[in-house]
Amino acid sequence: MFKNDLKKIEQRVLKAIKAAKSETDLEQVRLQHLSRHGELAVLLKQLKDLPPAEKKSAGQAANAAKEGIETALQQKGLSFQMSAGVTDGGVDVTMPGHSFLTGNLHPSTIIQQELEDICRALGFRVLEGPDIESEYYNFTALNIPADHPARDTQDTFWLKKEGQVLKTHTSAMQVRALEKYGAPLRAVFPGRCFRYEATDASHDTTFYQLEGLMVDKNVSITHLIGVMKELLRAVFGKDTKVRQRPGFFSFVEPGFELDISCFICDGEGCSVCKRTGWVELLPCGLVHPEVIKAGGLDPKVWSGFAFGLGLTRLVMMKYGIDDIRLLQGGDLRFLKQFG
Ligand code: DAH
User: Are residues 185 and 292 in the same domain?
Assistant: First the structure.
């Protein structure tokens, strides 16, 4: 009797499991047939009253039936989960995966790292400075007079806090580095610069420079030109056409402008080189005695050279980018090309 009843119940339950059309149906089957008050549980309670001769095999049959039902339940449940994605928006494990976007370095970062490597090989250490700078380091320590137009609110982002600016050039690190490390010193300072000016294809309010400073005994123009040429050769992978003009910057004496032939138009004239065929890339000069003094050193003992490489200009030249505004524009279609 017991085994017969067991068989009937087992078949009923297996049939119900098979017929279930959803996980809710399946749960219903579980509640109806397998709960503590379900028919299986009620039957199993009779086990203990069976004559000893039947008890053992009845118990084994009951266990086998229970296992069979459990397995059927599990498999049915799994089949619902597998197809859930297709039917009700869950995860369809049979779908091919999504490829996800990976980031890549910004072109300015790529060139900056390249330059840092070149400069390290030439014996320069790499230092970084703050974006928010004091009027002192940005102007005064660099021998830039109080009435100099660069200090004008038309060129400089002045902060509300008295005497604080967004650094307008990486030269601001010169005196900081001299104060901290003294001489002899060979260092480059890559960094972000800010100017309050109208934007066009070759001007943006934010751009990057890489400043170089070497202070030692008897540093001359020969050292300056030698290092500049080596730097440009390493950057462009070949000798680059350059021209040298006198340039005035109050923190160097004498000062120069090193221009390179425009890479965008090959010297023909375009919007980037303002139709001149030349791009200002490397202003430089011998460090002014006042700057050496501001750095806490004796200008009778120490001399040096400095340069302010237009990192953003260089990026544009190397990649043939004809509008500076693309660099800070955040357009992924543009940025992804450098991955
Ligand atoms: N700081 C200058 C600027 O942004 C560039 C510059 C000129 C840097 C001459 C130098 C230098 O180190 O020697 O316009």
Answer: yes
Residue 303's beta-bridge partner residues? 216
199 lies in the same domain as 287: yes
Who's near 120: CB < 8 A, 6+ residues apart? 126
Is the pLDDT confidence value at 86 over 60?
no
Q: Which residues have C-beta atoms less than 6 Å from ligand 1?
A: 169, 171, 211, 249, 252, 255, 283-285, 306-308
Interval between CA 117 and ligand 1 midpoint (Å): 21
pLDDT, tens only, 148-174: 887 887 799 999 999 999 999 999 999
**Is 60 exceeded by the pLDDT of residue 88?**
no
Q: Could you give the CA distance from residue 58 to residue 7 in angstroms, rounded to a whole number?
A: 11
Confirm whether 62 is domain-assigned. yes
pTM, rounded to two decimals: 0.71
Task: Tell me 22's DSSP state.
Answer: S
Instruction: Give the integer Cα–Cα distance in Å for 285 and 254.
Output: 6
Output the residue whose Cα is nearest ligand 1's atom 8: 308
Does residue 190 share a domain with residue 76?
no
pLDDT of residue 119: 96
Q: What is the pLDDT of residue 85?
A: 58
Q: Same domain for 132 and 49? A: no
Of ligand 1's listed atoms, the one at least distance from the Cα of 308 is 8
Same domain, 113 and 76: no
CATH number at residue 258: 3.30.930.10
Domain that holds residue 65: 2-83
| Mutational test site, ligand 1, from 169, 175, 186, max ligand atoms within 8 Å of CB | 169
How many domains does the chain fold into?
A: 2
Q: What percent of the chain has pLDDT over 70?
A: 97
Give how far Cα 320 sits from Cα of 39, 272, 323, 325, Å.
81, 10, 9, 13
Question: Is residue 59 domain-shared with residue 198, that is, in the same domain?
Answer: no
